Amino acid sequence: MASLLIHGGRIVDPSQGLDGPADLLIEDGAVARIDGKIAKPKGVETLDATGLVVTPGLIDIHVHLREPGQEYKETVATGTRAAAAGGFTAVACMANTVPVHDNRAITELILLEAERAGFARVYPIGAISKGMQGQELAEIGEMVAAGAVAVSDDGLPVMNAELMRRALLYTQHYGIPVIQHAEDLTLTGKGVMHEGEWSTRLGLIGIPGSAEDVMVARDLILTEDTQGRYHVAHLSTARSLDLVRLGRSRGLRVTCEVAPHHLILTDEEVAKTGFSTHCKMKPPLRSSRDREALIQGLVDGTVDCIASDHAPHHADEKDVEFDKAPFGILGLETTLSLCLDRFVHAGLLTLPRLVELLSTGPARVLGLPGGTLQVGSPADVSIFDLDGEVTIVAADFRSKSRNTPFDGWTLRGRPVATVLGGRKVSPLP
Amino acid sequence: MTSETIRWTRKDLLGIAELSPAEIGLLLDTAESFSEIGERPIKKVPTLRGKTVINLFFEASTRTRSSFEIAEKRLSADNINFSTSGSALEKGESLIDTALNLQAMAPDLVVIRHGSPGVPHMLARRLQAGVINAGDGAHEHPTQALLDAFTIRRHKGRLAGLRVAILGDIEHSRVVRSNIHLLTKMGATVVVGGARTLMPTAVEKLGVEVAYSLEDALRGADVVMMLRIQLERQGKMSFPSAKEYFRLFGLTRERLKLAQDDAIVMHPGPMNRGVEIASDVADGSRSVILEQVTHGVSVRMAVLYLLSGVTASEES
Amino acid sequence: MPRVPPTGARLNSMHENLTPKNTILDAKQMARIIRRMAGEVVETNRDLANLLLVGIRTRGVPLAEQLAVEIERMEGVKVPVGVLDITLYRDDLSTIAAQPQVKGTTLPRPVEGSTVLLCDDVLYTGRTVRAALDELLDFGRPRAVKLAVLIDRGHRELPIQADVVGKKVPTSGDEVIEVTFQSTDGIEQVRILERKAPR
Description:
The complex is a heterotrimer of chains A (429), B (316) and C (199).
Chain A: E1 4-13, E2 18-27, E3 30-35, E4 45-48, E5 53-56, E6 58-63, H1 76-85, E7 88-93, H2 104-117, E8 121-126, H3 140-146, E9 150-152, H4 161-170, E10 178-180, H5 185-188, E11 193-194, H6 197-202, E12 206-207, H7 210-226, E13 229-232, H8 238-249, E14 253-258, H9 260-264, H10 268-272, H11 288-300, E15 305-306, H12 315-318, H13 335-344, H14 351-366, E16 381-391, E17 410-420, E18 423-426
Chain B: H1 21-35, E1 52-57, H2 63-74, E2 78-83, H3 95-104, E3 109-114, H4 119-126, E4 130-136, H5 142-156, E5 163-167, H6 174-185, E6 189-193, E7 209-211, H7 214-218, E8 223-226, H8 242-249, H9 253-256, E9 264-266, H10 279-282, H11 289-307
Helix pairs in contact in B: 1-5, 1-11, 2-11, 5-6, 5-11
Chain C: E1 18-25, H1 27-44, E2 51-56, H2 60-75, E3 81-84, E4 115-123, H3 127-137, E5 144-152, E6 164-168, E7 175-180, H4 182-185, E8 189-195
Parallel strand pairs in C: 2-3, 2-4, 4-5, 5-6
Antiparallel strand pairs in C: 1-8, 7-8
Helix pairs in contact in C: 1-2
């Protein structure tokens, strides 16, 4: 098993309250020691992290790997390769594959492909309902037995309140959360962007913020009644965030994630880019008021983690009329740089808080083993340059797709190396 | 006049939102010069001889398309019409492929009408040819706003300081958006009026007053612009019936008395008589609805003329 | 790409790097010449009632107006003056950067059956007159079309000659004739300008 000495860096591990210069020794794929200065043991490889930041491996609990069924957009191999390049050592992948991941055969297939690729840990999320039809529960227990860590019909909401109630009850047997893509489809209608001044200006059909809020409110009531474990995926509005606060104040087990694009862009971007379909996703880019509230949520701790909602689509699918384009953008290879530049360098978040949101926090939400560099834990490590400038070039992505609104952005802060179980997975020699 | 000092430098006319008042003035002044051609015995000038204009209509249109066709012919351009029925689009060709195929035919200008907002912008980015937006979904319809402004100027001698009431289905109307941009840029006050269920979110951010009764909207208006109630888009809970709509928001002779004595009545057409406008108002002495159609040709000639002078490489 | 001034083919010292060389005609001389031209028009047109003066925009218009004034003074006949904007008939629209402004054509009476006297300030290549003829004929079938110019500077590129000429001025290709009128420019004179050598 792999051994490695990462020396000279600044170790930031919010799980242990660490932030300072230290060396990190990995033995047999696990963290063996963290100390001010560690002498290089014989035969152990070294990684010089002088001037760099060393953190627990980043974890993205909301990605779409598209396998099985849509391998022209992404595969487990390309998606995890992108993750490693972006500083992530683990991802949780959503169930809206083709066919839907609603049975253990697909759980096993995903895990097998992840094992083969070896770039990152993959935690499959199973569907809540069979075929994501929103009618009856999928075989949740079977999927958990095979390795699924949560359930979600993400891509679609669970519109049926009774089904949601049952899911919140049933999942308690397995101790896993129900992840909701919170959206009332009757309010969304044919909407393609946030409903507000900009949808009015552009003549595009709006998706009101209330489409999300109504669903979060309903689900919190059901969570209270069932005492279930509920997680809001890609939370995007100020009011939904308030609802999460309210739920917490009533003692509910509710967590939420926010996507980088909702924290950085607003609905105006659709106009600024001349109807770029790279500004089309669900939930849509919201108002600046929402954006500010979400950032406040990062600061005050309401938001548990940042998750990218990495949603690859082929260029041919995105290069169409705005109305017709599929929802979603990539995230794995842009998230870290965006967060360092826009939150840490902008003075909104401390570096430890950001690491918490990208690593310790997501691990906690899904009860995953990572998110820490405690001695004995798996040696998943992210190493990045806090100050190095990088220009996002979509054409160079490891992902199979290119759908990002951040192409060409120059940002401060970039991933440098990623270590998985003591083995360097990025950059590859 | 400001237009004396400016020149047209855009390859495309995608919307009014991005135009400066001086550019709008130039378009309107140029249209003024072209209106005389429609009164000549030979209604044709050789200006665009040898230029090719493609009219690409993905949505049914009689008025706008014939208006563009006449404008093109009066300028001696060669024009070709593509419409959705029977075209490759019905056979599943993507818009981009259609655009690339058009480009291969080397047109000088492409006039496009499409149901999706932003499609003209998409084409403009890919085509060497100039692109004229002839209506994209509920986004913009710049030549309609220009011909409306032209008609208003003919009657009122100015745009600045006028009070213009635009009434009807504000939410689904591209005409209203282009008109709001144009009229507010030129110094007019715009009040939009209509049912709460047909009013788009945050419309006041576009710099207009909002009225939820026809009476409030009409009071003191110099210009009353009625919009088509898109019956085909209703039935989705905006209002229960055409009859009920007319009762609340139909323009009648009695209600028109609330406007200024010399107010003119406009409508971009096609009209639903008895739904948004009573026949005696539509045909009455205050109505300038047919003049709008006439001026549409002059305005489109001006647009074709000015755009034809700017190629992709020269655009500034 | 070089930009052409909005008024079109005729260059003006305000728009380009031109330096005045010498003044050919001052206001007094211009007035005398226009009076003489009016005399020629009267002499060669027995039927003044049928005459229509048409000035080619921009500086053919004040010439036509002044000719009309002189004719009325001599003969007591008010000859109508029209304005022709030949922009839409120009043969160089596709080679210039931005479209020149169109200011419109107005003809006070039908061309059909009239004797039209086209008026322009300078006759040079003949292309402007060609465009004017094409436009004029689209308004109907005149009995005859004649041409009056204040300055004929030579260098014709089309087989066109003037019937009434104020003054012939031999020029070189580097020179520009600048005619200004009180009504359009605030000063009445004719100058030769020279193009500055390119930097």
